[in-house]
């Protein structure tokens, strides 16, 4: 079977998207690969198609239980033998899954990075026919990234422990130099095929709404977009609770998601959103990684995020189906102060002073770049693309700045707010 045949047969697609085929070919030729593609570009297929065509098993390392479960559900529905092994399973279930995997029953097995250290898993891996190890959300390996996970640092040790070195592939949406270099070094990729696809998402309309009356804006926005599905990100759980309550009071079918809710409530609310029972979800940035909902028409940011990486990743959850969608960031002078406050509170407990200082400086720089995005009168898309290292050309004509949708923010508000604190 050729990659294209596999794409059609298992996933029902006629053609690869930009970049996908190059990665698939490199992996099938036995080469390591690192693919940096924006959220929604279709990274999963880049390793799933080779996984089907390579002889043995592909081990996918993935940071989130919900993400693994969704992927495996999707693969199984497509008739592909795949399983996940994580802490949602009992010891007995894990043993059974590993037995099946050892017998060659699965083409893909998803695991959390912590699992790689377990002796039971190590002894399974030593005897299994592992063709490829795939590291999804690979930016988690980088201390420069905001999603750093120490357990990702153990992946190399695991790969080294295998009797035969598998093909290693890594995927992320974070395009900064430091993160890219960190991934290549820390996973010790061998002469990898590195692919960075364009970060532009032409179907997304970017806008910054400079306003203090954010609640009013959101209510009006939802009135203007009846029945559409969207995500509203807030900086804090408290804001999520307040805004969701307000929207419900106004009669909108809005649910919510943050880490303070029980696992059961999170699952229910997430499903309500995915199946459009509640087409709008108000959430902290705990929501979204691995959520593959294609018809999200808008992503509103009630508060300014802490970095352009965060912003573009979250905003990028709009319009995965390629249809026109809006990404609106609500900005007021208070946002700057709230974010500085959150940064000050950030805990660098496990680091020495020098390291903590460095990270603090980086965080501050990121925040300033984000702030400039909120203040600029230049083309917003060009601002984003330039940040991610692309060389943009003419203004895009499809963003708030290009449409001259600009008003001033009164910075004296910020000063007042500080005095009141
Ligand atoms: P990423 O991991 O890069 O954020 P996903 O792998 O979750 O993105 O894919 C996003 C969406 O794009 C999914 O709904 C997927 O089915 C779809 N997709 C991926 N590749 C193709 C393709 N070649 N043709 C059509 N749709 C695709
Ligand atoms: Mg993905």
From TrEMBL:
GO CC terms, sorted: bacterial nucleoid; cytoplasm; replisome
Keywords in alphabetical order: ATP-binding, DNA damage, DNA recombination, DNA repair, DNA-binding, Helicase, Hydrolase, Isomerase, Metal-binding, Nucleotide-binding, Zinc
Reaction(s) catalysed by this chain's protein: Couples ATP hydrolysis with the unwinding of duplex DNA by translocating in the 3'-5' direction
Sequence ranges assigned to domain Helicase C-terminal in this UniProt record: 213-359
Domain of life (superkingdom): Bacteria
Family: Belongs to the helicase family. RecQ subfamily.
Descriptive protein name: DNA helicase RecQ
Organism per entry: Gemmiger formicilis
